[in-house]
TrEMBL record:
Keywords linked to the UniProt accession: DNA-binding, Transcription, Transcription regulation
Domain HTH tetR-type: 17-77
DNA-binding stretch(es), residue numbering of this chain: 40-59
Record's protein name: TetR family transcriptional regulator
Organism: Streptomyces bambusae
Length: 202
């Protein structure tokens, strides 16, 4: 591995990529099962069937491992859906968020990372980067709606996308209530109505 190279950037499909995939899979499983506080690099190495020295050398700390895990998740996330209407696009985004947070593995994993971000700067930075990537992926749907005349000029596309997922995260973290289809529909409709009313301009 070249000096200064990021984990997994050398020899795509080779041993480096396989090691990274195995380690990130094990780290994600542990986060979902045990939370960030119990993310032990030695145990990750054991689960991934990788040498401890390799894991410590490449990732260094649990926060470094979480940062790489989130980068990998951002790269592999489902691309946006374009339906041709603002309502359809925002509903597609809300439903994707709902399904992700309701997933038996992904839901606990995100809760663990969000909890870690409250106390660890590197985990927080990784989480912020993950959402920046995802928001940027969906923002063109809002800009296209502006171009079609569905929304006022000057609408902040990124903020509209954030407003779609915000109620779903709030419900997940504060009530523990299931994220059903109705909750996704409400989130999408509320964001669309606010955007049409000009709440995200200026």
């Amino acid at each position: 591995m070249a000096a200064g190279a990021e984990p997994g950037t050398q020899r795509p499909g080779g041993r480096t990529a396989r090691v990274r995939a195995a380690v990130l899979r094990a780290a994600g499983d542990m986060l979902a099962e045990l939370g960030f506080d119990q993310l032990d690099l030695a145990e990750v190495a054991r689960r991934a069937d990788v040498g401890k020295t390799t894991v410590y050398r490449r990732w260094g700390t649990p926060a470094g491992l979480v940062a790489d895990l989130l980068s990998d998740m951002a790269e592999q996330s489902v691309p946006r859906t374009e339906t041709g209407t603002l309502d359809g696009d925002l509903l597609a985004n809300a439903d994707l968020v709902r399904r992700t947070l309701s997933d038996p593995r992904q839901g606990p994993l995100f809760r663990a990372v969000i909890a870690a971000a409250g106390t660890d700067d590197r985990a927080a930075e990784a989480l912020h980067h993950f959402y920046a990537v995802r928001v940027a992926e969906w923002a063109p749907c809002v800009r296209q709606a502006v171009g079609r005349g569905e929304l006022p000029e000057g609408t902040d596309a990124e903020e509209v996308v954030r407003q779609v997922s915000a109620p779903l995260y709030y419900r997940l973290l504060t009530t523990g209530a299931p994220l059903d289809e109705a909750s996704a529909v409400r989130a999408a409709r509320a964001a669309a109505a606010a955007a049409r009313a000009g709440a995200f301009t200026g």
